[in-house]
Automatic annotation (TrEMBL):
<keyword id="KW-0479">Metal-binding</keyword>
<keyword id="KW-0560">Oxidoreductase</keyword>
<feature type="binding site" description="axial binding residue">
    <location>
        <position position="432"/>
    </location>
    <ligand>
        <name>heme</name>
    </ligand>
</feature>
<dbReference type="InterPro" id="IPR017972">
    <property type="entry name" value="Cyt_P450_CS"/>
</dbReference>
<feature type="signal peptide">
    <location>
        <begin position="1"/>
        <end position="24"/>
    </location>
</feature>
<protein>
    <recommendedName>
        <fullName>Cytochrome P450</fullName>
    </recommendedName>
</protein>
<dbReference type="GO" id="GO:0006805">
    <property type="term" value="P:xenobiotic metabolic process"/>
</dbReference>
<keyword id="KW-0472">Membrane</keyword>
<dbReference type="GO" id="GO:0016020">
    <property type="term" value="C:membrane"/>
</dbReference>
<dbReference type="InterPro" id="IPR001128">
    <property type="entry name" value="Cyt_P450"/>
</dbReference>
<dbReference type="Pfam" id="PF00067">
    <property type="entry name" value="p450"/>
</dbReference>
<keyword id="KW-0349">Heme</keyword>
<keyword id="KW-0732">Signal</keyword>
<dbReference type="GO" id="GO:0005506">
    <property type="term" value="F:iron ion binding"/>
</dbReference>
<dbReference type="GO" id="GO:0005737">
    <property type="term" value="C:cytoplasm"/>
</dbReference>
<keyword id="KW-0503">Monooxygenase</keyword>
<comment type="similarity">
    <text>Belongs to the cytochrome P450 family.</text>
</comment>
Amino acid sequence: MLGSLILLWISFCLLLFLFRTQRPKNFPPGPRPVPVFGNLLQLNLKNPLDDLKKLAERYGKVFSLYIGSRPAVVVSGVQAMKEALVTRSVEFAGRPQGLMINDITNNKGVVMVNYGSYWKEQRRFALMMLRNFGMGKQSMEERILGEISHIISHLEKNAGKTTDPQTLFHKAASNIICSVLFGTRYEHDDEFLKLIIRIFTENSKMANGPWSMAYDSLPWLRGFPLPFRKAFQNMETMKKFTADLVAQHQKTRIPGDPRDFVDSYLDELEKRGDDGSSFSERQLVYFLLDLHFAGTDTTSNGLLTAFLYLTTHPDVQERCQREIDVVLGEKEQASYEDRHRMPYVQAMIHEVQRVADTVPLSVFHATTKDTQLMGYDIPKGTLIIPNLSSVLNEESQWKFPHDFNPENFLNQQGEFVKPEAFMPFSAGPRMCLGEGLARMELFLVLVTLLRRFQFVWPEDGGVPDYTLVFGITQTPKPYRMGIRLRGTQRG
């Protein structure tokens, strides 16, 4: 009797699953899901990018798959991406709910907040404050150049030797955004700074990794002490650190005279009082964590990619250095405005961002209403996966889609051009908040260091491995680089 009941229950669950996973009429095609797991067993969860490419070749640039019993639509290629994120931007500007990353952030901050008045209010404030504290201005240049001096000190100590840059650029990028958010910086050997970098690195790899997929697909696993609990523990550590910094600011701030982002937010909170808005101290903590992570991880991984390719493509490095020397001449320091006279350096930096493919699947979107995409019907609330990697490598869009070659960003006259397929920061209203800061950091760091040093692949370095380690952000595998002082040095 008991066995019959169990079989009946299993049969009922399978029928329920099959009913729930029937693709709606005119929904994008895709592989057939299996009970419980959906299409997860058809993907390499350590890095699904190759599998997604093959599925796009089979089913088209817009196809569907199931994460457990949940349907998702994968968008590939520049044409479909532009229609979704630009032409129909508001309709695709939502965030999916009920994923691990939602639970980690409690749906607060700005990155994972769903589209609506709450998100608009917080994003508008963030953009205003980032501009007020120098984004795109000379004051931000000074912050960045000040931090670069610490990188220079490290590299000078290692001149004639090799060094592992794995955390060097993470520390610098973290300090630059910390100076804006908290008005503080940490020495590069500070234990707490090392802890921040470790937590950010671990969580970025876990957020799109196998255990995240298990959490999202199999809700009944969530209560078990499995490896995804580490991401929650890391978040608690960062929340406590950030809340402590906010409490210190509460004690030392002078209302109306903000020193940094935290003071400005607290001023705004005080001004609004209990007006029912989205501003609160709890929201501030998550907001800061979003900005700190975004301002650290993407820039540092871009720099790691840059030096991996510059050390293994000495011809590109030398051409950049010649252009830098000519343009800067006797100037003490580079300025962000100098980029307009450095087309090849600009092309190299953009090519680095293209091959770095730092956020390959963007941050997942969701539809805010019933809509269409490339002729298919997409219901409201559907999880959308923008495959930015497919755009950055699309063969019809690039002269050299599978090689590192700055010529991808130069026209026949040697002038810098930016193809429409260049979307490393995504596109539309959910585009990365810190794009302007990231571009300024990449330019100033690379120009300043290439002016002073030559970077070489070590003789014992073996064959360079350009394979990226997958996660919500991708990073090169660890490597070492040789440091040599150049004959022409400034600053």
